[in-house]
Amino acid sequence: VADGRKILMHISNFRPVKRVLDVVQIFAKVHAQIPSVLVMVGDGPDRSLAEEEARALGVAHDVLFLGKIDVVAPLLACADLFVLPTDRESFGLSALEALACGVPALSPAPPVTAAASPVASGSRRASIAARQSVGTQSNPTPGNSVTLRRFASASRAMIDSNTPISPVMSR
User: Fold this and answer.
1) Given phi > 0 = left and psi -120 to 50 = alpha, else beta, which region is 41?
2) Containing H/E element for 156?
3) I need a labelling partner for 166 at 20 to 30 A (CA). Which of 43, 99, 122, 123 fits?
């Protein structure tokens, strides 16, 4: 999308736990305020529901369903904000990939527990560190490019310094 619109992105297997209907609803609210497009990558049982929701909310013309794609880093590098509203599982690997690509992730950050995996807790710490580095407890918003860049930079720095997976996620 080369016309200046903000790019929101979601990558998942479109299962109920990923809350893809919420992704579309979040996008519809953003889209009403900011010129934007939503890129949905993946496939699964809730894809048709998400497509229907986009039509019902009148944003289907700005929602792109790309299906399953094996190499997502080039797509992520184009995104302005990654959206993963799941709240019943650990911080998703796709959000970690987004953070490693320098894309801020909009996602609930459940408390880190002793049982959390190093990758999950590392991505949660990156999200929290990004918020702290820009002086806010809230998530980034697509309308503020300066804040998005600050979140992206802080997220990538946290991933580089605390997550063992970072060498394989080069930009």
Assistant:
1) beta
2) helix 145-162
3) 43
Cα–Cα distance measured from residue 42 to residue 24, given in angstroms and rounded to the nearest whole number: 14
3-class DSSP state of 151: helix
Place of tokens 């903000």: 6
Report the C-alpha gap between 156 and 153 in whole angstroms.
5
Mind listing the pLDDT tens digit for each residue in 104-154? 887 765 434 333 333 344 444 444 444 444 444 445 555 555 555 665 666
Cα 35 to Cα 72: distance, rounded to the nearest angstrom: 23
Side-chain half-sphere CA neighbours of 132 within 13 A: 8
Angstrom distance (rounded) from CA 122 to CA 49: 32
Beta strand extents in 20-59 (DSSP E only): 36-41
Distance CA 78, CA 98 (A): 10
* 39 contacts 10 by C-beta, under 8 angstroms: yes
Query: In terms of pTM, does the model score above 0.85?
Result: no
Round to whole Å and give the CA distance between 55 and 61. 8
Cα 79 to Cα 76: distance, rounded to the nearest angstrom: 5
The strand order across the sheet containing 63-67 reads 63-67, 36-41, 6-11, 81-83, 105-106
